[in-house]
Design goal:
Structural class: mainly alpha
Distance between the termini: 118 Å
Largest sheet: 2 strands, antiparallel
Oligomer: single chain
Shape: elongated
Number of strands: 2
Length: about 725
Amino acid sequence: MTSSSGAALNASENARNATLERCLSVLRDAKNDSEQFAALLLVTKAVKAGDVNSKTRRRIFDAVGFTFPNRLLTTKEPPAGCPDHVFRALGLTLLACFCTDPDLASHYQVLSKIPTFNDTLTSRCDPGDTSLSSMVDDAYQCLGAILATPKGPRELVNRGTVSSLCQAYVSHNFGCDRALQLLMGLLATAEANCWQRAASDLMAVLSVLSAEFQKAEDMTKFQLCKVLPCFVPPPPLLHQDSECLGSLYRGLSRILSSKLSAVQRDPALKLAACLSQACGSDWIPAGSTGSKFFALLVNLACVEVRLSLEELDPAEVDGKQEVVTACYVLIELGILECTREERPLLGQPQKIQLVGIMEEAFGAVIHYLRQVGREKLEDPFIFASVRILGAWLAEETSSLKQEICDLLPFLIHYAKMLFEEGRKTGDLSQQAAEVAGPGRAQGSVWPGDALRFLLPGLCHLTAEDRPQKILVSEGAPALLCQYFLHQWKVLTCGCQTQTPLDSVEISLQTTCGIFLNLVVTAPDLISQDSCFSTLMTALLKLLPSLLPQRDRLTLAANMATLGLMMARRLAASPVLQETPATESFFNATISFLSEAHAAQADPTSMCLAVAVSPAYEAAWPEISELWFLGMQAFASCVPLFPWLPQVVLRSHWLEDLLGLLGRVTPASVDLELITAFQGVLVELARGSRSCREVILQHRGEEQANLYGMAALEQCL
């Protein structure tokens, strides 16, 4: 730049500054509206030209304040010869200028103008009308500035901005691309509130986007892959729009069936994962075309996981975390479809092939987790990797046995670390148990409850010798005992939790299943590890309060049977001496066992028959095995606790049981049930003269003969 041109620029800038200073002076000293209006026109011209910095903008506000812009926005009668919107345009320009200051953007005077900004977006505007289009630009600038403030998103949602932005986009109003960007920003920060307030408007935007996505033949379709995940609604809204689902499926099918670069494929996989999170596999049509696409989708996800986790250095995986997390969602859907029996999307040969492909992917997940350093354990991606591995182990433990056994120490250490950290920071259920979905913001919160996702796999593994020994040596029983007690507290405390109570209850049931496996396959461990005495003490207290809650009968069945099985191994311990708590526990188990069957009229024979009690019918498929196991365990406890027959006598179980057998036709009682009844009756008859007398008084010998209970007949 020559010295003469530099001098010219300096002279021009000095002239502008001098003009602006005169305008500000006029604004401060204006004696009437006309003088202030004239000065403002010059100021806004400078603002529009971008000739003012933040310091100067603040000086403009100090000179003008909010009063005059407010009047400009509400004045209905412009000067003769001026357009109708001239005052309004000037007011919006001033507010847009002020909003560049974050403090002013969050001022209540600006927030109160949100409805005005909304109306400006939705008004028809000819792109050739520079004055009106300038107003729209200013309104978008104000809304964007408000969105960037801490309380801005809530204010915008509450004051109807979401609907206005949706209408502006759907109507293709001037600046509609900016409306889409603002909507994405609002959904990223206040998604639940946005859908709650403006679900139909947001669905209209999604409908437009999905139609564009299906038709697009250029790079637009890949750009839309990045936009669409923001607009995937919470369930069940997407299920209700089959046309939208069809457009999204057809668009993705065309993309993923083509040869793609990673830059093009990754957004498509993320979009597919978002759709799968929202509605499972329902977005994919049934039939051969849909099943082929689904197999391709899961196959691509597995390949991506292998490429990212096997071939990349752990440090390089960080850049691929978001797409790999999306692939985990798709693989989990693949697991569900491979285990689905009713109306499966996949045929049996496809399932077998897909399981083999997924096995290779999980080999890569295990490989990655074994490389992870302790410093990365708080990374939510590690949690996502453990979570998907838990989903695999819940269904498949026969493959990758060696690799899984080698990883078990890490999994227990990781689950224990999260559990202990969760207890330090508050209730585990208050932690974010899910990693943010693909296409949505990743939070910096503590990952959450890993054990919840590992429990089903651990239930399988504790039934096998080798993994069981590893789990025991790593302290899994003590960890599971603490977890059980904590989850019980969550279930019963009545506090708010992010984890659904149904899920908490299932976790408790599965933990009982793990302990049952240990009781059956490692009985010596029960008396050696102190955590089982702690657990037994808890069950003595918890079962009596749980059993009356009929909606939790499955959990009660698990706890009653587990307690009886453990009581056989802990009979000599101080925990199970004759105390009110112990008697209350056995009374509860008697209630559970004795109330499972009743006499009901058989419509075919018009006679009474044994049937599952109405209160037990719904849960019986889940608890029948536990009931029979509980009957065996109770019978085994009778000789171990000399005072137990007296508890039975006080409960009148013997009279009820023999009365039931006396009322029904013997043909209605199957052999397995007869065996269960006989086991308890024999032990009571042997262990207590009083019980034997009650049995004899209630036609016990006759019933034993009638039902083929040879052992009972001989005992009596």
